[in-house]
Write a structure and sequence with these properties.
The structure holds 3 protein chains of 3 kinds. Chain A is of the alpha/beta class. Chain A has 9 helices and 10 strands. The radius of gyration of chain B is 20 Å and the shape is globular. The chains are: A alpha/beta, B alpha/beta, C mainly alpha.
Chain lengths: 256, 264, 231
């Protein structure tokens, strides 16, 4: 792929003495959907949070679109600027509890990006339309089900029109019967050309909807490639184990 | 409505705390009489070095008790303003705290008929103060007295009579030390005390405050009883009369003052 | 108990409702203005500031309001004049309204108590709210003003109400520094008649009334926020 929209080199991060990310390199092309897999504690979520600058990295260089940043010595202003190139969908939705659905979506537009209120409201309604929540624009987050809240969470991120959309286990807190509708929604977004990096445990979804899967373990990228290759013919022992363990937990033929 | 019931319950509980018995009788027919006083008005009532009640009020009533075999006095301590509430509710039978009397008070309580102490109240100022000899000289000045005492009343009634140029009354409820330092530093201009009070304060705190002019009032102090305790009052007053005549009261009072001054 | 004395004690006490409420309200306001930044400094562990505030708050919480009042009075009676003189200001302790001393002591207490309330309320805001705000491109101060504080304030209301009521009741301690509140006005009015029981009941009724009204006002505010939250 030629049009690399995100390039990360040598990302390092420790919490105290524990090294969580040990020099991670990552490139994502425009329009690509990348699924980030791996056992819990492998550093997937931390990687996502470092890309969004929610976590302060100890080392590494990040380029998104035309902006480059040395992560460990980023100033406030550049950090904020870089942060605004991505948007994040959270495992626990994390909608602003003091705002309506519409205000949740416009907040980042009006305050973060200084877009006029009227225009922001239009953009927000379009995004809510896309996720099927336009009719609940004036509801409060507390009045919505988990699945509805996550739809709004996705609309909130989409409206920001990010270069890369980061999704952190977007279906992990949902009731099982709600999982599929959110996955379907993300798959539609993927087809429509959004650039996405998704941390997920939904193997079938990663297999079906992503252009590439990355398998992480213990703070490193162990293996990556098109889903058919990684799932069908894993090259690394750790990848094999992970996929086998996963298959044993599911009925045979669950995804291939 | 619930809240009003709760309030009433609380108030009645309050009464229970104050009630219990100010008077009990044992098998031998000796009645125990609970006397209420406070612990913060030396030399009349205070706690001695051992933390026991001492002072003129107790000395005198002990002397009375010695001559009344049918009674046995015990003492209980209250904050000055709560003493009469304790009397109202029957927790104590006698309130002894250098009480002066007036018609309004006699409406509610029975006062002793024998004044057991003469007090004269004076304006008290710093040694270098001049031109103050009477209440009129204090108009517009700051005079500090304890709230709800006779002197407060005296000043309030002066102000009522002279609304165009009143005395600025500043109530203090803190310590004599603060009163004295305020007077010394000119934060207040004067206070009102008895001669004994001034003498005590000067000795205890090393000040040299002086009384000026004629006494503002001379009052006698009395014990206070509930309205239905005429018999108790009569028994005590008879003894007081004798003690007054034979000079015992005078002697006890001087001794009390001296013992406070000596401990300093 | 004599109702006519109760009535006149009520009247005397009621005359001091305004100064009593002001003596609680102004320190409460100052307490909010000081307590909120103090809570933020402590919650976000601002170096030095946090440790200093921790010690200060624990100190203030550990001192009875009564003692603080006396300390303020004694200290200001001894040093107010010389401080004013060195600043060249024409104020003297003699002319200083004693309510100011009581107010200052209560404000210190209110700031410490409210900083604890706000700290607790801050802790009740889920961490995800910060993440979401930053991820939407809000700066730290924008996130605080627009997302976090609007959630902190409603949560603080019930405890804030308790502190307001504690302040109203503390106004009665003002008599120690020659401030006349509802209770002392009622008691003083009964000096001639020695009807102190009536005075206390009158003061209790008035204080109770003030506190009930305060509680209702805070409840109204709570309902207001609750409606906004779910409507």
């Amino acid at each position: 792929m030629s049009d690399i929209i995100l390039e990360l080199r040598g990302l390092e991060k420790s919490f105290g003495k524990r090294s969580v990310l040990k020099g991670v390199d990552l490139r994502i092309a425009k329009g690509e959907t990348v699924a980030l897999l791996g056992p819990s504690g492998s550093g997937k979520t931390t990687l996502l949070r470092c890309l969004n600058l929610l976590e302060h990295a100890d080392g590494g260089t990040l380029r998104i679109e035309s902006q480059s940043l040395e992560l460990h010595r980023a100033g406030k202003k550049e950090s904020l600027q870089m942060c605004r190139r991505t948007a994040m969908v959270f495992q626990h939705y994390d909608l602003f509890l003091n705002k309506t659905v519409l205000q949740n979506v416009t907040e980042g537009l009006v305050i973060g990006r200084k877009i006029p209120a009227k225009e922001a409201a239009q953009t927000a309604m379009d995004a809510l339309e896309k996720v099927g929540m336009a009719d609940r624009a004036n509801s409060r987050p507390q009045q919505l089900s988990g699945g509805q809240q996550q739809r709004v969470g996705i609309a909130r991120a989409l409206a920001l029109n990010p270069a890369v959309l980061l999704l952190d286990e977007p279906t992990s807190s949902l009731d099982p019967e709600r999982v599929q509708e959110i996955l379907d929604l993300i798959a539609v977004l993927a087809k429509s050309g959004a650039t996405m990096l998704i941390v997920t445990h939904e193997m079938a979804f990663a297999y079906e909807a992503s252009d590439r899967v990355i398998f992480m373990d213990e703070g490193e990228i162990v293996e990556q490639g098109p889903p058919r290759e990684v799932f069908g013919n894993p090259q690394q022992e750790r990848t094999k184990q992970f996929i086998t363990r996963f298959l044993n937990n599911k009925s045979p033929g669950y995804f291939i | 409505m619930k809240k009003i019931i709760a309030l009433l319950l609380t108030l009645s509980a309050l009464f229970l705390v104050f009630s219990a018995c100010g008077k009990t009788e044992d098998a031998a027919g000796v009645k125990t009489i609970v006397v209420g006083t406070s612990n913060d008005y030396p030399p009349y009532c205070y706690l001695d070095a051992n933390g026991d009640l001492a002072g003129f009020e107790k000395e005198l009533l002990d002397a009375v008790d010695a001559q009344l075999p049918q009674y046995k006095f015990t003492y209980e301590l209250f904050d000055f303003k709560n003493l009469l509430t304790a009397l109202d509710t029957g927790r104590i039978a006698i309130a002894a705290h250098q009480y002066g009397t007036n018609p309004e008070r006699e409406e509610k309580y029975l006062f002793g008929t024998v004044g057991y102490f003469q007090t004269a109240d004076y304006i008290v100022v710093k040694p270098d103060t001049e031109n103050v000899a009477a209440l009129d000289d204090l108009a517009g000045k700051i005079v500090s007295v304890a709230p709800a005492c006779n002197w407060a009343l005296l000043l309030e009634s002066y102000n009522k009579a002279h609304p165009q140029n009143p005395i600025q009354i500043q109530y203090y409820e803190s310590t004599p030390q603060i009163l004295s330092s305020n007077l010394q530093n000119g934060v207040i201009d004067a206070t009102i005390m008895t001669i004994a009070d001034v003498q005590l304060m000067n000795t205890m705190l090393g000040t040299q405050f002086k009384t000026v002019g004629e006494p503002l009032s001379t009052t006698e102090t009395f014990h206070i009883y509930r309205k239905d305790e005429a018999e108790l009052r009569q028994d005590i007053d008879e003894v007081l009369q004798r003690l007054k005549a034979d000079g015992t009261i005078d002697r006890l009072q001087k001794a009390a003052l001296n013992s406070v001054l000596k401990t300093k | 108990m004599d109702l006519s004395y109760l009535w006149s004690a009520l009247q005397a006490g009621a005359g001091k409702i305004l100064p009593t409420v002001v003596l609680a309200l102004v320190p409460f306001g100052i307490g909010v203005l000081l307590g909120l930044p103090a809570a933020l400094g402590r919650y976000f562990r601002v170096p030095v500031l946090k440790q200093t505030l921790d010690v200060l708050v624990s100190l203030i919480k550990g001192i009875p309001v009564l003692l603080m009042l006396m300390a303020f009075y004694v200290i200001s009676s001894q040093s107010f004049d010389s401080v004013m003189q060195s600043l060249g200001l024409p104020f003297s302790f003699r002319g200083l309204p004693k309510g100011l001393i009581a107010g200052a002591a209560l404000a210190v207490y209110a700031a410490a108590a409210l900083s604890e309330v706000f700290r607790g309320a801050l802790a009740s805001v889920p961490k995800g709210q910060y993440d979401a705000a930053y991820a939407c491109g809000l700066s730290k101060s924008q996130a605080m003003r627009r997302i976090i504080l609007p959630q902190v304030l409603p949560v603080s209301l019930p405890m804030g109400c308790n502190i307001m009521i504690a302040l109203i009741k503390s106004a009665a301690l003002g008599s120690l520094v020659s401030f006349i509140d509802v209770m002392n006005a009622a008691v003083n009015s009964m000096a001639a008649s020695y009807r102190f029981l009536e005075a206390y009941i009158a003061a209790a009724l008035i204080y109770w009334g003030i506190c009930v009204i305060t509680e209702q006002l805070f409840k109204l505010l709570e309902h207001h926020f609750a409606r906004r939250r779910t409507a």
